[in-house]
Structure formats: C-alpha cells, structure tokens
Amino acid sequence: MRAEIGLIGGSGLYALAGVEEAREIALETPYGSPSDSFVVGELAGRPVAFLSRHGRGHRLLPHEINYRANLWAMKALGVSRILSASAVGSLRETIEPRHVLTPDQFLDRTRGRPATFFGEGIAVHVGFADPVCPDLRARIAEAARACGAVVHGSGTYVCMEGPAFSTRAESHLYRAWGMDVIGMTNLTEAKLAREAEICYATLALVTDFDCWHDEEEDVTVSVILETLQANAHLAAEALRQTVATLPEGRTCACGRALDGAIATDRAMLSAEVQERLAPILARVLA
C-alpha cells in the first residue's frame, strides 16, 4: 500500500486517531528495522503513513532510533512530505510551556549518529542552508493556530544528544547563542528527509523551560508527560488539518535536493549502492 504523506509522532503521540481503512505494515530496510510498524490508511481523504518515533510504549531513546530505516521506509512507501510532532524545552521567556513552535533552523549538538544515506561507494552533499520546507512549515503553523494554540512561526531548534537533559551551563550557553527551543530528534530526521527529497516540517510542542529558568521547576519526565498529554489532542488535530489542506503537487525545491549534489561518477556506482538506495535515487537515476 502506498502513502503520500508521512506523519511521525514523538513523545506522547504514539498513535493517531482518525486514520481510515488503517492497516499495519512492518517493513525491513537495508538499515534494519524502523522504530515500529507503520499505520497506513487515509486521513482527511489523503493516503498517509503514521510512525511512532520512539515506538509504541516509548521503548527507544533518541540516540537509539533508527532514523535511516524510518526515513528509507517512508520513501519506499511513496511519501513525499513528512509532518512530525515532538516535545521540546523552551530557551526563551516568551515561548511558554504549551506553546507551539515551528522551527525553520536547527543547530546540531548530537554526537556520531548515522545521519546520511550516503557514503560506502557514493559521495553526495545536499544543500541544507534552509533545512525545513517553507510551505509545509507555514501550513502546519496555520493549522496549529486554527486549533487554538499559541504558535511561534519560526525559530532555531537545538538538537542535543541526550538522553540526559541539559546542564544549567549548557542551557545558558544555548540562550546566549540565540537558540529558541531544545530537543533530541528532529535535526536527524530533517537531514535524512532532505537527502530523500522529502519535504519536512515539525510541530515542536513546548513542555518546559529546560533548566535555565530560576523561577521554574527543572525539567523532568513527569513534567513533560503531563504537558504532552494536554497537547496530544492539539497535535493530532493540527496534523489532520494540515493534511487536509495540502495541495496535490509541490512547488518547493525539496523534491529536487539531489540535483547537482552527487559527486560520484554515475558509471562508478556499484549494483549494491544502487540497490541499497533504490528509493532514494530513483528519480536521479531514471
């Protein structure tokens, strides 16, 4: 079964109500197993594939998530756009818990995660100056506002390694750098989505003030989960409304990210490389 739009649920969003004719599909990829089975069906009349980023029951830490398998499988299912939801901490007084931010920039503070499909016989360097699809970001922000959320339409998401939360020194440093929110997952997804020529945008659900705010409780899992439960309906409804308003075609540049990005001579690409990356390279090798 093919899908057009991918939906990735983060902490607190392990399933998505309203998917019609839903069926579960377990996929294997050249990179191993995705986080969970995909739920494929129709949402607002559009073919979608939903994936729980951490697995149902929240079994996977951020650095344990097999991002390459997740994104490869999305591409293999036919997905051309991905909408994600995730929990973040705020680094700004004006971005309060239960607010929403739709980031347009990322800062990478991860360490050694596999974050590319390429290498091992193929050299590719995609442009990543603007890591989020502008059209998709605008639409998910508009949908969240329509659901009653306080939405910050742009900002920078610091992607830290985890699984421990920030030290107070780190939190103050990120604020001094001008960062807006902090999380542990979205940058890696965005990088792989760009390599796969998939549009990507995220709904960052603010759960806490990290640990920089002297007058607020330091971040804990219990605080995060309490806020996420309150935000779960908002996230699901915003995703549904975004799916309902997406046009059939894409006018952004995301779908041509590999144009001019492949350094390796096509004649030197081995059969193994072409097989491993078949869904990713299908357009450029056609």
What does this molecule look like?
The protein is an alpha/beta fold. It has a single domain, classed as Rossmann fold (3-Layer(aba) Sandwich). The chain is built from seven helices and eleven strands. It has helices at residues 67-76, 134-146, 168-176, 186-195, 221-245, 271-276, 278-285; strands spanning 5-9, 20-25, 38-43, 46-52, 81-90, 100-101, 105-109, 151-152, 156-160, 181-183, 199-208.
Summarize the structure.
The chain is 28% helix and 21% strand.
Notable features of this structure?
28% helix, 11-stranded mixed beta sheet, 286 residues, globular, Rossmann fold, 21% strand, 11 strands, alpha/beta, 7 helices, single chain
Q: How are the secondary structure elements laid out?
A:
Blueprint: E1 5-9, E2 20-25, E3 38-43, E4 46-52, H1 67-76, E5 81-90, E6 100-101, E7 105-109, H2 134-146, E8 151-152, E9 156-160, H3 168-176, E10 181-183, H4 186-195, E11 199-208, H5 221-245, H6 271-276, H7 278-285
Parallel strand pairs: 1-4, 1-5, 5-11, 6-8, 7-9, 9-10
Antiparallel strand pairs: 2-3, 3-4, 5-10, 6-11
Helix pairs in contact: 1-4, 2-5
